[in-house]
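Per reviewer request, we include the raw input and output of the structure prediction for the construct analysed in the revised manuscript.
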Amino acid sequence: MTAPHEVRRTSAGRPSQGEGERVRLLADAARTIDAPDLVIALSHRGRRVYQLDGGVQPGNAPRYELGSASKPFTGLLLAALVAAGRLRYEDSAAELLAPGQPVHPSVRAITLRHLITHTSGLPALPADFYPQALPRWSTAPYSRYPADRVVRAFLRARPRHRPGTRWHYSNFAVSVLGHTLAAATGTPWEALLQQEVLDPLGLHDTRLRPSPLDGDAVGHRRDGRPLPGLDTGGFDAAGAVRATPPDLLTFLEAHLPATAAPTRPPAAAFSDVRQPLLRRGLRHAHTHTLTWFRHASARGPVCFHAGATLGQQMFLGFRPDTGTAVAAMCTRRVHRTDPFIATIHELLTEKL
């Protein structure tokens, strides 16, 4: 079992009745989830509370691996470049990556919007990814598939569906987007994200590479054995971000309309990533924005994204109509039957 949980408030003054209720709800959620190093971070109209495992405190919390919850960072980067007039959502990725190179017509038709919204027709991962990854599947499956190989796989691809016609989740597509943004701006993806998103938002404890000697959380197998930090190889844009709980709340708060808009990224970028673009899911009951899953709730739409690495789990979400944001994380990848995702999703959509 995990260590006892503690609640810490970081807002000034005496807690309001509503804040006391939010503290109780976080404690109830934590008792439902049996996972190591659990953290639930909540912001409501700028007032923050944390449900923390053991001796962790907001000021010394480690950086957690976001996995696929990195994609909203890449989506916001794209929206910022479009808002600044440097790119268009309709730009052809192939033309930006390899101008004039012969590619399949469907590949040439794939736009930046298709890549970030999982409508490119590309598979989840390149076909030749799996043979090289299998020997390292439980430790470092991405590490020997570098950026140039991701780009080559894209340029020789044969999409399964015509771009824009079907939604199919794809780490491959978002990784290609990262390389395309780098090629189009002449700036490496890591430096570009730092310049356009992380530095302007003040996310000074967010990193894009493992740094275990400098505050990274250690992930674990289900049997408790520790795992090395994830090496994402050429798939950085789809899963490389590592961040502390306070930084994640800052990132989410910037998406809330009631929050004082930062100068950069432009307000138009945040507006773009909140807007529903397409329907997905069973009977198309749910919508998807440029980069967030979007579900209905009794208190207005909820935008969220989950992520998992080999040894860590993450959930990010916000509800624009009520100024509420939640980040939850633990240092074990949960099984699909584990209540982590369901509990945090319910917390955000139905209880807070």
